[in-house]
Amino acid sequence: MSIKYVGRPVDRLDGRDKITGRARFAAEHDYPDLAHAALVHSTVARGRITAIHADAARAAKGVIEVLTHENAPAMKPPPSRSLLNLSSMVIGTSVNYLATDEVHWNGQPVAVVVAESPEAARHAAGLVRITYEELPAVVDFAAEEPNATPQKGNALMPAAANKGDAEAALAAAAVSVDLRFTTPPHNHNAIEPHATTAVWDGDRLTLHESTQTITWLRSHLAQRFGVPEGNIRVLSPYVGGGFGGKGSVWAGTLLAVLAARATRRPVRLALTRAGVYHTVGGRTPSTQRVALGADSDGKLTALIHTSVARTGRVGGGGEQITSASRHLYDSPNIRLRQSLVQLDLLSNTFMRAPGESIGTYALESAMDELACELGMDPIELRMLNEPARNPMDGKRFAHRMLREAYEVGAERFGWRERDPRPGSMRDGRWLVGMGVASAYHPAFQLPASVTVRLGADGGVVVRCGLHEIGVGAATVQAQIAADELGVPLESVRVEVGDSDLPAGPMAGGSGQTASAAASVLEACRKLRRSALDLARKSPDSPLRGVRDPQARDGGLYQGSRGETYAAILARAGRDHLEVAAGGGMLRFMAKTVRDRSRWVKAASGAHFCEVRVDRDTGEVRVSRWTGVFDVGTVINAKTVASQLRGGIVMGIGLALSEETLIDPRTGRVVNASLADYHVPVHADVPRIDIHCLDEPDPTMPLGLVGVGEVGITGVGAAVANAVRHATGKRVTDLPITLDKLL
Ligand code: MOS
């Protein structure tokens, strides 16, 4: 019997290369003649450049070129966004950098310095003097938010929903809460800031890039630089964190490619930390209203969730702030609306559970407040309103185990120790609070092409241009292939992160693993079939006449009859067998539409949080955490737990510290550094207890549901609810800083 690998906590196959420094990231590729680029950022939010004084920069030591809109070769303008051209969905902004004198946000790149060293480039960038004709700019979200207009939805991301008459039901409800929430903008802070090394050879481009979207980046660059896609190779074997920030094409990448073309030198552009804040979008701020009405037993009669978010005038889009409210609770009356304002700021973009992470903060805080109003246990209130079918349209849930998640979590966490009275639990000067909240994130898939090759030595190579953004993406596909083919894990190699490989899915929407797994499973099935056909053609194969052998022990066997793949290939005189699977867009779309008409698919979970609040200073420490998740089949117990834990850590930042501060007069981000923008550090994070229910989702490949984003959803509310329990104070404005508790 072969060992099965799916489910086991297999170490990441890329782990050793990373900790020994052998892994090469995008800014770590050396070329003879390599030049370095640095960006010059606008200092006004909106206007026109009237003059650029670059003589001092050009004269500085080591400077090769200063590119501005006056001398840069033209790029083609970005195509407009359309669902029909999926690669257009990853456009960061619509600005045609260095082809225009227009400035659309404070921080927009307006010049690029290319020099012999990164230091020389940055120094010279500081010498470029620019004057502007300033135009009025609208940058203050709080001031503009009342003038929001309804978000345009689409089939994948509806922006509104209505059932019954929620306002009337709210007015008539025996018990109700009606709360307004505000959440700040957030920025990306991956360990590896965005980086590009661009190398032109004639009209062929090699790009080392830190990206979550190899395929669409390549097609975007082909369009912008007027070369065939086949002339571009994007290499991205390692990505030091993505979180959605590397899911679109931003200025740094485009300008590195442009600078390399203009200077005929390989060019590396590694964004500074501040450079990421000024050129890569982040999470929208929001205002939200959640109003809930219930009868005196706690049955919901009205659920209203509305939101306002912002985009940039030159890009960005709606986030799914109210989407979990479509699925979490049964209510005869539901009203959901998402609205937007457009500001003269850098566009928003994907950031771990875009919309859902802040939307669940509001919804799950309001549920907790309703439980307080009702004098009910918050878990009991949730279970009372747990829907049997999708509340909006009665569709079936493909799979849903929130009840079990709460049951298991309550036990592991010790929920019954909780005294429900606010402020009643103490530990010396600390007020102790316990809170719960639900996690919810939809399950998506994208098309993925793979090939699987079996060598004469029995070795297996899986090839797919997917993205290793630090999650163990390749490792889990190796586990799946090893099981499907019945070979040891050591004999499987998974090649990822290269546009020369079969096109992988974007690493986004928590969909990469399931997307690739579907095709890996299909390919392995085909490969077993091909191997069997090959064996059966040979008169002396022990597999002759065998119909349905098992893949195990490095070959195909039925009972004691069978042989290894190596023997099958040797007998047939073949040095390898290779099959391809996946990637058919039409077939994929048809399946997606059929699936979506039948099922609501999602990952979900229950967060249990304990906080300690200093009764004198209001300091909040998260002291314990349990998360129980329904994410279908667990492929790798270690990487799955790490993903969920990472989501919770990021959520603790969202709850307690993360906040991008934008000067309302100038539109400038004023805390563009890790010194001023606070993400949780080890001292802020307790041991996080993760448990997965590990029941397959019957509609997903191998029953697995993506785990990248569900972990962060609900976290803001779990913390806020624990703080409410500790202090009696409901904080409706993130982050929960100590001034809000005094
Ligand atoms: Mo995710 S926000 O789709 O990387």
From TrEMBL:
Which parts of the sequence belong to the Aldehyde oxidase/xanthine dehydrogenase a/b hammerhead domain? 20-136
Q: Show which residues constitute the signal peptide.
A: none
What EC class is this?
oxidoreductase
- EC numbers: 1.17.1.4
- Keywords, A to Z? Molybdenum, Oxidoreductase
Q: Name one GO molecular function term.
A: xanthine dehydrogenase activity
The superkingdom listed in its UniProt entry is Bacteria
Q: What's the protein name? A: Xanthine dehydrogenase YagR molybdenum-binding subunit
Q: What is the lineage of its organism?
A: Bacteria, Bacillati, Actinomycetota, Actinomycetes, Streptosporangiales
